[in-house]
Prior knowledge:
Layout: E1 2-6, E2 10-17, E3 29-37, H1 39-48, E4 54-61, H2 64-75, E5 83-86, E6 92-98, E7 104-109, H3 118-127, E8 131-136, H4 142-154, E9 158-161, H5 172-177, E10 180-181, H6 185-192, H7 199-211, E11 216-220, E12 226-229, E13 234-237, H8 250-263, H9 268-282, H10 295-305
Parallel strand pairs: 1-4, 1-8, 2-6, 4-5, 8-9, 9-10, 10-11
Antiparallel strand pairs: 2-3, 6-7, 11-12, 12-13
Helix pairs in contact: 1-8, 3-4, 8-9
Amino acid sequence: MSLIVFGSINIDLVAQTTRLPNKSETVLGTNFFTVSGGKGANQAVAAARLSIPTYLIGRVGDDNFGQTLLNSLNEANVNTNFVTVTPNTGSGVAIIAVDENADNTIIVVSGANGCVDETDINRLKTLLPQASALLLQLEIPLEVNIAAAKAAKAVGVRVILDPAPAPDSIPDELYHLVDLITPNETEASRLVGFEVNDDKTCLQAANILLERGVNTAVLKLGAKGVFCATRTEHMIIPAFKITPVDTVAAGDAFNGAMAAAFNEGLSLQESLIWGAAAGALTATKQGAQPSLPSRATFDTFLEANLAKID
Protein backbone atom coordinates (compact mmCIF):
# COMPACT_ATOMS: atom_id res chain seq x y z
CA MET A 1 0.00 0.00 0.00
CA SER A 2 1.02 3.61 -0.54
CA LEU A 3 0.30 7.03 0.94
CA ILE A 4 -1.17 9.90 -1.03
CA VAL A 5 -0.55 13.49 -0.08
CA PHE A 6 -2.85 15.98 -1.78
CA GLY A 7 -1.73 19.52 -1.13
CA SER A 8 0.64 22.43 -1.33
CA ILE A 9 4.15 22.78 -2.71
CA ASN A 10 6.05 25.95 -1.79
CA ILE A 11 9.49 27.45 -1.87
CA ASP A 12 10.40 28.75 1.61
CA LEU A 13 12.23 32.07 1.94
CA VAL A 14 13.65 31.91 5.46
CA ALA A 15 15.05 34.79 7.52
CA GLN A 16 16.66 34.06 10.88
CA THR A 17 16.61 36.72 13.58
CA THR A 18 17.25 37.01 17.31
CA ARG A 19 13.58 37.81 17.90
CA LEU A 20 10.43 38.13 15.85
CA PRO A 21 9.32 41.69 15.07
CA ASN A 22 6.37 43.35 16.76
CA LYS A 23 3.69 45.07 14.72
CA SER A 24 5.17 47.82 12.49
CA GLU A 25 8.68 47.01 13.70
CA THR A 26 11.80 46.26 11.67
CA VAL A 27 14.44 43.93 13.11
CA LEU A 28 17.78 42.88 11.69
CA GLY A 29 18.19 39.29 10.53
CA THR A 30 21.17 37.07 11.09
CA ASN A 31 20.87 34.71 8.11
CA PHE A 32 18.78 34.02 5.01
CA PHE A 33 18.28 30.91 2.90
CA THR A 34 15.79 29.31 0.52
CA VAL A 35 14.55 25.75 0.90
CA SER A 36 11.82 23.55 -0.53
CA GLY A 37 8.65 23.38 1.56
CA GLY A 38 4.87 23.54 1.54
CA LYS A 39 2.79 21.49 3.96
CA GLY A 40 1.78 18.96 1.33
CA ALA A 41 5.29 18.52 -0.03
CA ASN A 42 6.79 18.36 3.47
CA GLN A 43 4.40 15.61 4.55
CA ALA A 44 5.12 13.65 1.39
CA VAL A 45 8.88 13.91 1.92
CA ALA A 46 8.50 12.97 5.59
CA ALA A 47 6.75 9.73 4.66
CA ALA A 48 8.99 8.93 1.67
CA ARG A 49 12.15 9.34 3.75
CA LEU A 50 10.75 6.67 6.07
CA SER A 51 10.75 4.30 3.09
CA ILE A 52 6.99 4.46 2.47
CA PRO A 53 5.78 4.57 -1.20
CA THR A 54 4.36 8.09 -1.39
CA TYR A 55 2.56 10.02 -4.13
CA LEU A 56 2.12 13.77 -4.13
CA ILE A 57 -0.70 15.45 -6.04
CA GLY A 58 -0.38 19.21 -6.43
CA ARG A 59 0.90 22.03 -8.58
CA VAL A 60 4.00 24.13 -9.12
CA GLY A 61 4.46 27.15 -11.37
CA ASP A 62 6.43 27.32 -14.60
CA ASP A 63 9.12 29.42 -12.89
CA ASN A 64 12.60 28.51 -11.65
CA PHE A 65 11.17 27.72 -8.23
CA GLY A 66 8.92 25.07 -9.78
CA GLN A 67 11.81 23.05 -11.17
CA THR A 68 13.71 23.37 -7.89
CA LEU A 69 10.71 22.04 -6.01
CA LEU A 70 10.29 19.08 -8.35
CA ASN A 71 13.98 18.24 -8.07
CA SER A 72 13.79 18.22 -4.27
CA LEU A 73 10.76 15.94 -4.27
CA ASN A 74 12.35 13.51 -6.70
CA GLU A 75 15.55 13.39 -4.66
CA ALA A 76 13.45 12.36 -1.65
CA ASN A 77 11.84 9.52 -3.66
CA VAL A 78 8.41 11.13 -3.69
CA ASN A 79 6.46 10.07 -6.79
CA THR A 80 5.77 13.32 -8.66
CA ASN A 81 4.00 11.85 -11.69
CA PHE A 82 0.82 13.60 -10.56
CA VAL A 83 2.37 17.00 -9.85
CA THR A 84 1.31 19.45 -12.56
CA VAL A 85 3.35 22.40 -13.84
CA THR A 86 0.84 25.24 -14.26
CA PRO A 87 1.71 27.62 -17.11
CA ASN A 88 1.94 31.39 -16.65
CA THR A 89 1.78 30.98 -12.87
CA GLY A 90 4.32 31.37 -10.08
CA SER A 91 4.99 28.61 -7.59
CA GLY A 92 3.74 28.91 -4.05
CA VAL A 93 5.98 30.91 -1.72
CA ALA A 94 6.25 30.92 2.08
CA ILE A 95 8.00 33.84 3.76
CA ILE A 96 9.28 32.59 7.12
CA ALA A 97 10.92 34.33 10.07
CA VAL A 98 12.60 32.15 12.72
CA ASP A 99 13.94 33.49 16.04
CA GLU A 100 16.65 32.16 18.33
CA ASN A 101 14.04 30.23 20.37
CA ALA A 102 12.98 28.37 17.20
CA ASP A 103 9.60 30.13 17.16
CA ASN A 104 8.40 31.30 13.76
CA THR A 105 5.92 33.34 11.77
CA ILE A 106 4.89 32.36 8.24
CA ILE A 107 3.16 34.17 5.38
CA VAL A 108 2.10 31.97 2.47
CA VAL A 109 1.42 33.21 -1.08
CA SER A 110 -0.51 30.41 -2.79
CA GLY A 111 0.62 30.80 -6.40
CA ALA A 112 0.03 27.56 -8.32
CA ASN A 113 -1.43 25.92 -5.22
CA GLY A 114 -4.53 28.03 -5.76
CA CYS A 115 -5.02 26.42 -9.18
CA VAL A 116 -5.58 22.89 -7.86
CA ASP A 117 -8.98 21.81 -9.19
CA GLU A 118 -11.23 18.98 -10.35
CA THR A 119 -8.65 17.68 -12.83
CA ASP A 120 -6.38 16.96 -9.86
CA ILE A 121 -9.24 15.13 -8.15
CA ASN A 122 -9.50 12.90 -11.22
CA ARG A 123 -5.79 12.11 -10.89
CA LEU A 124 -6.33 11.32 -7.22
CA LYS A 125 -9.12 8.85 -7.98
CA THR A 126 -6.80 6.70 -10.09
CA LEU A 127 -4.45 6.25 -7.10
CA LEU A 128 -6.90 5.77 -4.25
CA PRO A 129 -7.57 2.02 -4.67
CA GLN A 130 -3.95 1.26 -3.72
CA ALA A 131 -3.72 3.79 -0.85
CA SER A 132 -3.82 3.31 2.90
CA ALA A 133 -4.37 7.00 3.69
CA LEU A 134 -4.92 10.42 2.13
CA LEU A 135 -3.19 13.37 3.78
CA LEU A 136 -4.76 16.82 3.38
CA GLN A 137 -3.90 20.35 4.54
CA LEU A 138 -5.52 23.76 3.97
CA GLU A 139 -3.03 25.48 1.64
CA ILE A 140 -5.11 24.56 -1.43
CA PRO A 141 -8.74 25.59 -2.13
CA LEU A 142 -11.12 24.30 0.54
CA GLU A 143 -13.67 22.99 -1.95
CA VAL A 144 -10.98 20.84 -3.57
CA ASN A 145 -10.04 19.39 -0.18
CA ILE A 146 -13.67 18.46 0.38
CA ALA A 147 -13.86 16.77 -3.02
CA ALA A 148 -10.64 14.86 -2.29
CA ALA A 149 -11.94 13.70 1.08
CA LYS A 150 -15.20 12.57 -0.52
CA ALA A 151 -13.29 10.55 -3.11
CA ALA A 152 -11.21 8.86 -0.42
CA LYS A 153 -14.17 8.04 1.81
CA ALA A 154 -16.02 6.55 -1.16
CA VAL A 155 -13.38 3.81 -1.42
CA GLY A 156 -12.68 3.40 2.31
CA VAL A 157 -9.33 5.23 2.47
CA ARG A 158 -8.42 6.90 5.77
CA VAL A 159 -8.51 10.72 5.60
CA ILE A 160 -6.00 12.69 7.73
CA LEU A 161 -6.48 16.45 7.86
CA ASP A 162 -3.89 18.93 9.07
CA PRO A 163 -6.09 22.06 9.50
CA ALA A 164 -3.32 24.52 8.73
CA PRO A 165 -3.38 27.35 8.16
CA ALA A 166 -6.44 27.28 10.42
CA PRO A 167 -9.46 29.14 9.06
CA ASP A 168 -12.10 30.76 11.26
CA SER A 169 -14.21 27.69 10.64
CA ILE A 170 -14.25 24.41 8.72
CA PRO A 171 -17.46 23.30 6.97
CA ASP A 172 -19.38 20.58 8.80
CA GLU A 173 -19.21 18.52 5.61
CA LEU A 174 -15.43 18.26 5.83
CA TYR A 175 -15.42 17.34 9.52
CA HIS A 176 -17.68 14.38 8.75
CA LEU A 177 -15.30 13.18 6.03
CA VAL A 178 -12.19 13.28 8.25
CA ASP A 179 -10.99 10.22 10.14
CA LEU A 180 -8.20 12.01 11.99
CA ILE A 181 -7.57 15.76 12.49
CA THR A 182 -4.22 17.10 13.73
CA PRO A 183 -4.24 20.77 14.79
CA ASN A 184 -1.51 22.33 16.90
CA GLU A 185 -2.43 24.45 19.94
CA THR A 186 -2.93 27.65 17.95
CA GLU A 187 -5.01 25.95 15.28
CA ALA A 188 -7.11 24.06 17.82
CA SER A 189 -7.76 27.28 19.74
CA ARG A 190 -8.97 29.01 16.61
CA LEU A 191 -11.21 26.12 15.58
CA VAL A 192 -12.95 25.77 18.96
CA GLY A 193 -13.00 29.44 20.02
CA PHE A 194 -11.05 29.25 23.28
CA GLU A 195 -7.41 28.94 24.32
CA VAL A 196 -6.12 25.37 24.33
CA ASN A 197 -3.20 25.26 26.75
CA ASP A 198 -3.57 22.41 29.29
CA ASP A 199 -5.00 18.91 29.70
CA LYS A 200 -8.47 20.18 30.57
CA THR A 201 -8.78 22.48 27.56
CA CYS A 202 -7.21 19.85 25.31
CA LEU A 203 -9.93 17.38 26.29
CA GLN A 204 -12.63 20.02 25.83
CA ALA A 205 -11.29 20.95 22.39
CA ALA A 206 -10.90 17.33 21.31
CA ASN A 207 -14.45 16.53 22.37
CA ILE A 208 -15.78 19.45 20.33
CA LEU A 209 -13.91 18.24 17.26
CA LEU A 210 -15.29 14.74 17.79
CA GLU A 211 -18.80 16.16 18.12
CA ARG A 212 -18.33 17.93 14.79
CA GLY A 213 -17.79 14.58 13.10
CA VAL A 214 -14.13 13.51 13.11
CA ASN A 215 -13.28 10.05 14.44
CA THR A 216 -10.00 10.93 16.15
CA ALA A 217 -8.65 14.29 17.35
CA VAL A 218 -4.88 14.65 17.73
CA LEU A 219 -3.59 17.89 19.24
CA LYS A 220 0.08 18.57 18.54
CA LEU A 221 1.43 20.44 21.59
CA GLY A 222 5.14 20.84 20.77
CA ALA A 223 7.28 20.45 23.88
CA LYS A 224 4.19 19.36 25.83
CA GLY A 225 3.69 16.28 23.67
CA VAL A 226 0.56 15.02 21.94
CA PHE A 227 -3.02 14.78 23.20
CA CYS A 228 -5.28 12.29 21.41
CA ALA A 229 -8.96 11.53 21.89
CA THR A 230 -11.32 9.09 20.22
CA ARG A 231 -14.94 8.38 21.07
CA THR A 232 -13.86 5.71 23.56
CA GLU A 233 -10.51 6.84 25.01
CA HIS A 234 -7.93 9.58 25.29
CA MET A 235 -4.17 9.44 25.72
CA ILE A 236 -1.16 11.70 26.14
CA ILE A 237 2.12 10.99 24.37
CA PRO A 238 4.98 12.84 26.11
CA ALA A 239 7.40 14.82 23.98
CA PHE A 240 10.88 13.57 23.21
CA LYS A 241 13.42 15.81 24.89
CA ILE A 242 15.46 17.77 22.33
CA THR A 243 17.00 21.21 21.94
CA PRO A 244 14.94 22.89 19.20
CA VAL A 245 16.63 24.81 16.40
CA ASP A 246 13.79 25.37 13.91
CA THR A 247 10.24 24.05 14.34
CA VAL A 248 8.98 25.03 10.87
CA ALA A 249 8.29 21.52 9.51
CA ALA A 250 7.90 19.63 12.80
CA GLY A 251 4.12 19.37 12.45
CA ASP A 252 4.44 18.12 8.87
CA ALA A 253 7.01 15.55 9.99
CA PHE A 254 4.53 14.38 12.63
CA ASN A 255 1.77 13.83 10.09
CA GLY A 256 4.01 12.12 7.57
CA ALA A 257 5.52 9.76 10.13
CA MET A 258 2.19 9.00 11.79
CA ALA A 259 0.69 8.08 8.42
CA ALA A 260 3.79 5.99 7.65
CA ALA A 261 3.25 4.04 10.87
CA PHE A 262 -0.41 3.45 10.00
CA ASN A 263 0.76 2.22 6.59
CA GLU A 264 2.98 -0.33 8.35
CA GLY A 265 0.05 -1.57 10.42
CA LEU A 266 1.00 -0.02 13.75
CA SER A 267 -1.56 0.94 16.39
CA LEU A 268 -2.83 4.47 17.04
CA GLN A 269 -0.57 4.87 20.06
CA GLU A 270 2.48 3.54 18.21
CA SER A 271 1.70 5.81 15.26
CA LEU A 272 1.49 8.86 17.52
CA ILE A 273 4.88 7.98 18.98
CA TRP A 274 6.31 7.77 15.46
CA GLY A 275 4.87 11.20 14.74
CA ALA A 276 6.28 12.67 17.93
CA ALA A 277 9.72 11.23 17.24
CA ALA A 278 9.83 12.55 13.67
CA GLY A 279 8.63 15.97 14.80
CA ALA A 280 11.29 16.13 17.50
CA LEU A 281 14.07 15.11 15.13
CA THR A 282 12.95 17.66 12.56
CA ALA A 283 13.03 20.49 15.10
CA THR A 284 16.74 19.90 15.70
CA LYS A 285 17.73 21.11 12.20
CA GLN A 286 17.16 24.18 10.05
CA GLY A 287 14.81 24.31 7.10
CA ALA A 288 11.70 22.39 6.13
CA GLN A 289 12.48 19.42 3.90
CA PRO A 290 16.23 19.24 4.67
CA SER A 291 15.39 18.64 8.34
CA LEU A 292 13.11 15.65 7.72
CA PRO A 293 14.83 12.45 8.90
CA SER A 294 15.84 9.40 6.89
CA ARG A 295 14.59 5.98 8.01
CA ALA A 296 18.00 5.05 9.43
CA THR A 297 18.24 8.27 11.45
CA PHE A 298 14.64 7.89 12.61
CA ASP A 299 15.06 4.26 13.71
CA THR A 300 18.26 5.07 15.61
CA PHE A 301 16.63 8.02 17.39
CA LEU A 302 13.50 6.07 18.29
CA GLU A 303 15.49 3.11 19.65
CA ALA A 304 17.72 5.38 21.73
CA ASN A 305 15.01 7.63 23.12
CA LEU A 306 11.78 5.67 23.35
CA ALA A 307 12.39 4.67 26.97
CA LYS A 308 13.29 8.25 27.92
CA ILE A 309 9.98 9.97 27.19
CA ASP A 310 8.15 10.68 30.45
